[in-house]
Design a protein that fits this description.
The protein is α+β, with helices and mostly antiparallel strands. The protein contains six helices and 14 strands. The N and C termini lie far apart (42 Å). Belongs to the inositol monophosphatase superfamily.
Amino acid sequence: MRAPTSAASCPRFWSRGSRLPGSDLPLLVEAAQEAGEIARRFHQGAPAVWEKEDAQGPVTEADLAVDAHLKDRLLTARPDYGWLSEESVARTDRTATSAQFIVDPIDGTRAFLEGGRDWSHSIAVARGGQITAAVVYLPLRSATYTAVLGEGAWLNDARLGTSDQTEIERAQVLANAPTMDQRHWHRGAPGFERHFRSSLAYRMCLVALGRFDAMLTLRPTWEWDVAAGSLIVTEAGGTVTDQAGHPLRFNNPIPQHDGVVAAGGAMHRALMDRLARDR
């Protein structure tokens, strides 16, 4: 895997001075790479960890340090943008702003705590409910996934494209074990080969890369988990919806979706045909 391309040297980034959608991308990439340096200092170093309320999983001092850095870095550069992050209080006016940062400081905290590599920094900008710029950065894999609305999706300097798999029984799918419960499917759970990664954002990037044919989660899904990944998949030629087939809209008052299904177009249709939406 090639080393990440810097925002300053990458020819596909738009002018920093412009406020066109793509002009946010250099800022997002630089902020994500800075976040990676902060997270590396805590990785495998037994950071302090707490359990969130309502069984929402662990949060570490690394998550909080990265979140604080990103909030300061991004809102200093774009003080008129709204703020929505997993680890800090959202700006009270975010639904009234014309653009919003949607951030997961460390997506895949459990993998981070276990000393693994499959955690990421996920940062997106939304405008009018649509993601317009996105980065998912995996520091320990030297992998920078990026997308700008209408400009394609990239892993470092390589253009991305989803797979063209059409047969659901032959598919390689990223999903957690409860997804295979029979109640979720018409005619029983498909026979696809199931795989797992801790970070939802990384799962979506692997679909955009074509390494896997689909990812799905049938649990209520927070916007910060999938905002950046959703644009990366669609700009790679894929389709992303909730489990009822509705397109994802972002910066909702309650920032949550009814599950997420992401795949190449033909595979997405095959999955939607098998999902039980009347349970």
